[in-house]
Hints:
The protein is α/β, with parallel strands linked by helices. It has one domain (2-242): 3-Layer(aba) Sandwich (Rossmann fold), CATH 3.40.50.10900. It is built from seven helices and twelve strands. It has helices at 28-39, 94-106, 135-140, 154-166, 184-199, 206-210, 212-228, and strands at 2-6, 17-21, 43-50, 57-58, 67-68, 70-75, 80-85, 110-118, 126-131, 150-153, 170-177, 236-239. The protein has an eight-stranded mixed beta sheet with strand order 1-3-6-7-2-8-11-9, with helices on both faces. A two-stranded antiparallel sheet has the order 4-5. The chain has a two-stranded antiparallel ribbon with strand order 10-12. A hairpin with an 8-residue loop joins strand 4 and strand 5. It is globular and about 45 Å long. The N and C termini lie far apart (35 Å).
Amino acid sequence: MTRIKEVDDSIDPEGFTLVEGFPGTGLVAKISADYIKDHLDMDLYAEVYSEEIPSISVFEQGSRNLKPAVCIYADPENELLVLKCDAPVSAKADGFISGLTDWIDGNNITPIYQLGIPSRSDEKKVFGVSIGDAEKELDAAEVPKPETVGGISGPTGAVLERSQEEEISSIGLTVSCAEQLPDPEAARTLIEEAIEPITGIDLDTQQLAETAEQIKEQKKKLAEKMQQAQRDETSQAYPEELYK
């Protein structure tokens, strides 16, 4: 069972866009979501509780308040939500995935799911996929289409599959990234080339570039935990040859 506990009832998320931040390959989604939340100074909107999420209480710099591992932050001015996730989420967490998807559907929210595709190249290539009417938003933002056949695994793959089953308009954004290390540069590319044009927000991502090494060190332990998890526990996109 998943419970989404609203802590700010002055915010109505109807019709908002949600940027998801599950830890995955290169920690791209987490770095991107955390950066957007921090630099838009977003307010805590809701806490997410589920028996299928690791029981972790999180504290943040400069605050005495503890929070659960998964929280939703809001920027009403930009009609934007960010799902901040500080723990690995299993692709088998059916209750959590169903509960989150039903809440998204019930509030007519358009989710943007992010993930990395492992690459040995330093070039950061972005592409977007969609479900339902969300294709129009990708076209309007001129986000490239996939150049190869491939798949999406982990919790992001599971939530996209659920969205497809329920015909919920959704966006999936992928960027090539380092496989075993946090990749702030990939997150920066995803923000600049896809999230900003889709959502209409304007972020100064220079700080993300300047603090890349610091971010890598901060996220290194989480990246190591993700590497220890089974493959279906980690969100990633992968080219066709990896699953033939």
